[in-house]
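Review this fold:
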Amino acid sequence: MNAMEILRSSLRGMTSNPMRSVLTLLGVLIGVGSVILLVGVGAGSAKAVSDQIDSLGTTTLTVRSGSGGGIRFQDLTTGVADALQSSVDSGDATALIAVVPEVTSSQTITAGTSSTTAQIIGTTANYFDVTSSKVAQGTAFTANDLTQSRRVVVIGAELATTLFGSQGDADYVDPVGQTVVVGSTPYLVNGVMAAKDSTGTESTNNVLVVPLTRVQQSIAGYGNLSSIVLQASDAGAVDVAEAEATTVINTELKIESTDDATYTISNQAQLLAASTSTASTFSAMLAAVAGISLLVGGIGVTNIMLVTVTERTREIGIRKALGATRGAILGQFLTEATLLSLLGGALGVLGAVIGSQFEILGVKPAIVGSSVVLALGVSIGIGVFFGGYPAFRAAKMRPVDALRHE
């Protein structure tokens, strides 16, 4: 019995009871599809975070208060930002080109009859360039607005839609030139920022950017800064820029050792590495959960093949009486089990590709090639492993016992 005859015999066995074959491969289909799709969800989530970090720029660093040793949140003041700016202006810091202090708060914003809560960011005029925040409508505020503490704002895309509607709607109002009320103080809308990618629960588009001096006068007071964003001259100078910033801040805060630092400096590469590590763990966990479906599918293959061998015992006895070898019987049932798993795996890949066209839990899955190859390989392995016992059981039957089987 050659390979072609074994294949034909296996196909006849599969098609002799099509409903049972379909239900068997359905278990493998669900398992393979789940593995590929859930790994895709993890990859899609990682890609979204990576895109957001890239959109912030690869040359930015962020200074925040707090350290593992001793936390003193009063340390990050405008004096630190001024010292960093002085080092940039004097040329002492060669790798640093911009310093952007930030104060954040949360306030109720009202425009006409619309009202919502948004994040207030008090900062300087170069905030937009350093954080890659493009102004899509109108203009950003200027250094003169900062000096004069003018009540002007630039609002995020989501906040603009909430307060003034979407372009094309009948009730849409152009936000530029309109007045919004922050708390109880009116502000003039200078511009609207282009939409940016968001991750987590807090949208980066539901924000209102105000000159730092105005925020300090009317909202947050002259207390500490929330953070300081720094810009390096290029992506390759980020480490040098971090070292220069550390020196300036340590001098300003009179910190003698980095171990005693009461602040942290993070850059986009560190954030990207942390997010990639988290996403990998998330993907592995999802794949492990989906792998249980594959195991259940494999047990289903074993169950059905045992039933098939029992039903065809007399056939096995006749074929052995006519001279069929153990290898031929083993190959026939092993091929049948493998074909069931392989077909189920192929349909699972197709289902995963179709499913990846839709968002799952707000994430667009990104199909990973290696997960497709691995899932298909595992489905073949399931056919061989879980179909092996029934096939071996059929192969070792004695012809006389098989022919006596009722």
About this structure: DSSP finds 13 helices and ten strands in the chain. The radius of gyration is 33 Å.
